[in-house]
Amino acid sequence: MAGPLGAGVCGVGPESKAAGCLEEALQLAGTIGHQGLVGSALGNLANLYLDAGNLDRAVPRLEEVLQIARESAYRHAEATALINLALAHGMAGDIRACIEADEQALDIARRIGDRDKRAHAWVDWLEHIG
């Protein structure tokens, strides 16, 4: 799940070199005030934590990504953040929150015509209701 920055070492856990690189990227993006890069770095960091099963660190970052995406009206990023939040909620056993996030992602994906995101949201939704 983790993005390309640090992807070569993502498998070694959230305290890895990848996490350090992503934290540095996040700090630099914030310093230059580029919200798109902040969202991207946060999303990649959140996915790294999600892959490691560290939901306490993943969920707040995913919520930040969702907020940035909504503020910038970047619907693709919003749908992606919702799909990842749904996954985190599902991992935590909060099926209601998982389904709600997936339904929101599915609605956005339908409206923007993104079949890939629709498929991800739909499959995730089916896994948690079935």
- The count of helical stretches stands at 6
Low-confidence stretches: 1-11
* Averaged pLDDT: 82
**Record field, number of beta strands:** 0
Distance between the termini: 24 Å
What is the helix content? over 70%
Global structural class: mainly alpha
Question: What's the overall geometry?
Answer: globular
Q: What proportion strand? A: under 5%
Largest sheet: none
Order of helices and strands: HHHHHH
Evaluate the radius of gyration: 14 Å
Number of domains: 2
Structure overview:
By secondary structure, this protein is an all-alpha fold. The chain folds into 2 domains: 1-72, no CATH class; 74-130, Serine Threonine Protein Phosphatase 5, Tetratricopeptide repeat (Alpha Horseshoe), CATH 1.25.40. Helices cover 78% and strands 0% of the residues. The protein contains 6 helices and no strands. The chain is globular, with a radius of gyration of 14 Å. Residues 1-11 have low confidence and may be disordered.
Q: What is shown here, in short?
A:
This protein is mainly alpha-helical and 130 residues long. It contains six helices and no strands. The chain folds into two domains: 72 residues, no CATH class; 57 residues, Serine Threonine Protein Phosphatase 5, Tetratricopeptide repeat (Alpha Horseshoe), CATH 1.25.40.
